[in-house]
Amino acid sequence: MVDSTTVLWGQTLAYTFYVLAIIAVMGWFARRVTREGPSVVRPAFFYAFVGLLVALGVTLHLVTYFTIPWKEMDMHRASITPDKVFEIGVADHTFQLPAEKLQIACHDKVLFNVSSKDLTYGFGLFRPDHSMVFQMQVVPGHRNDILWQFDRPGTYSIRSTEYSGPAGVGMIVKDAVVVSCPGH
Amino acid sequence: MTFTQTLLNGEQGAFKPASLTPMQKMILRFVVVGLVYYGFAVIEGMIMRLYEVGPLPTVTDKQFFAIMTAHPLVGIFGSTYSIVFGAFLFLVPFLMKKPLWSLRLANATCALLGVGTFVFWFAGFLTHYAPLYTLYWPLPADFTQFSVWGGTFFILGIALVMLGAVFFVINIFKTITYTPAGTSGPGAGALLASALGLSGLRALFSRGKKEHLVSLPVAAIARGTVDVAFNAGIILFTGVLILVYMVAALLGHDLRRTAIDALLYKNWFWWGLDLVADGLVLIFVAGTWYLLATMITGKKLFMENWARAALFVELVVSWTVWSHHLMSDQAQPAILKTVSGEMVTAFELITQGLAFFITLVTLWSARPLKMTHPLRFLLGGLLGFALAVPAGIMQADLGLNRILHNTQWIIGPHVHVAVLVGLTMTLYSVVYLLFPIVTNGAKLYSDKLAVFHFWAHLVGGIGMGAFMGMAGLQGMLRRALYTNGEFSGLMILAALSGSLLLFGFLAFFYNIVMSIGLKGVVGIFTPSRVKTAEPVAAV
To answer: A with B: how many residue pairs have Cβ under 8 Å apart?
Structure first.
């Protein structure tokens, strides 16, 4: 299954290609605009450009809806029964976990329900190389839940992904989530 | 001339402050205030870049976050608002060929921006008040972490800036709509309709061609000013709300913080903040591009009615786009995330894309153009937004936001490239273009320094954004500290790029001081002896 590493690589490639292309176009324009040559641009070119922008704006969200697995699951999470639920609290810049290690079986749909008793925090899972698996905001007085399906073994750290004052700098629980897959 | 003579009197002694009209002095004061605070923001930025590489012996974590709180506010309110407000208070009467409604109010605006910025900056500097510009409730009222007095003065400083913004709004709309004594005009209602784009919208669907009462750049200024007004209202209201908690704490009462719903507050505040980030900045920038393109080429704008319509659409978009900041808030209604967060945000690709295209075609229509400093910086500004807007559209996607929100991707390739490369290079283009007009023909000290300024700023800005973005894609959060060198390689490269920005600014600052001289700088702040209400004295 596609995970965040794959998506981020795809984004890196697509955006890098775009950056190089637009820099090349602007460099070409800057050079050519200072030289003699035809200067009339037909309105049809303008309308085609408008059409291209509309197409790009619409297709981005359609493409991600059909290719990024967590997008659809997140939008319909209220109607999905999770295999496992973890109730997590946050107060005084500290995560209160239901167990020292949150054990998860491969392919289980797991709901993390995080509630804050004081400030706005964040809740994110990170790999040992510090790359992000997912994150959400944790707003006091509201339900903050995220449904996730893990398809490979791994050990992840929990980190607050929102600033909650200087006291929140160290809000990290190392190796708090363990995903086990039979056969691995 | 010797170096000392040039330093004192400016290049060839061509700058004569005594010849400046009150309007010229007014805009130059705004520019000086804006450049001084830009210098503050650059130095603050460099301190943060270095701190992201590794601990600095003289800076604590609390100071780091206090700098992070002040930095964007100094950059936007102290620097950008000053330069933009000054330029528009000069340009609206200049373009409409009538005096500014109130010069006194304009000078008061400048003073309020300058003093207000210093008050909130100094409050943060002394007390390390650091709830960041987002002020997520109830953090600004968390007095276990922050000083109540520090917070009170911080909010008062912001309120002074907002009062200056309100004065600017009044002055702009009064200048557009009033008819000077002894003259006749089309009436305030007709002028306002033209400025806000209602007549332009009608013209799009009308066969008969009618001349617009208000030129396109003035229309863009008017529409962006609507967002300035709303934004000032939101920030002032929020400031009063926070002040209530602070004053209560100072009087020994601890008000119940749960009385304010954190999510509702977040929606309210982001609605107001986005009137800056996705409203007036984009509208003002588009209008400024159109003005620059027509002034540089002397040609009519390509597809002008479309440009006017796009500005009107952008105004509506800016009121309905805020939810892309709350895509990771799971309690936020899904309909808002999808419609406001994804769909309306995608419209910015269209509106800003149109402005980009129309500006380029207008420039193209005047081939061959000489590569002047204004043109060079305008192209840099266009490139900045061409890079930053798609980066923003990508993160405003429910799938991608899950792994991008609050990472360095947001603040690097999107925010800093938009602000530093897109917005600031556009403003530099205006400064280089207006320099001879507002100084009565002062000579630029060095063209080579201006070219160095361009390349250092462009490469530094794009480079810093790129390295921050790479770190973000690898999981590095913004508003966080990494003390074990997790991302130090990329942060060193980002800091090196940042230092290019610093050197570029120093080159520009030196060039401007040597152009007008130290006596000229002082002369800007003395009262004008030229008795005229015109922006520029008649030759």
So the answer is: 215
Q: State whether B329 and A39 contact (CB < 8 Å).
A: no
| Partner-chain contact B331 A32, CB within 8 Å | no
Rounded CA-CA distance B99/B102 in Å is 8
Half-sphere CA count of B173, side-chain side, radius 13 A: 16
Sequence letter at residue B106: A
Structure tokens at B243: 């002040």
Which residue of A30, A35, A169 is in closest CB contact with B481?
A: A169
Model pTM score: 0.94
Q: For residues B359 and B363, what is the distance between their CA atoms, to the nearest angstrom?
A: 6
Please write the tens of the pLDDT for every residue from B19-73: 999 999 999 999 999 999 999 999 999 999 999 999 899 999 999 999 999 999 9
**Of A15, A23, A146, which has the smallest distance from its Cβ to B330's Cβ?**
A146
Please judge whether B397 and A122 are an interchain contact, meaning their C-beta atoms are less than 8 angstroms apart: no
Cα B90 to chain centroid distance, Å, stands at 17
3-class secondary-structure state, position B175: helix
Closest CA to B91 of B276, B225, B188: B225
For chain B, domain boundaries: 28-260
ipTM of the complex: 0.95
Tell me: the pLDDT tens digits for B500-537? Answer: 999 999 999 999 999 999 999 999 999 999 888 888 87
Q: Is the peptide bond before B368 cis (omega within 30 degrees of 0)?
A: yes
Short-list B23, B20, B22, B172, CA closest to B88: B172
Question: What is the tens place of the pLDDT at every residue in B287-308?
Answer: 999 999 999 999 999 998 888 8
Architecture of the A82-180 domain: Sandwich (2.60)
Q: Where, residue-wise, is CATH 2.60.40.420 in chain A? A: 82-180
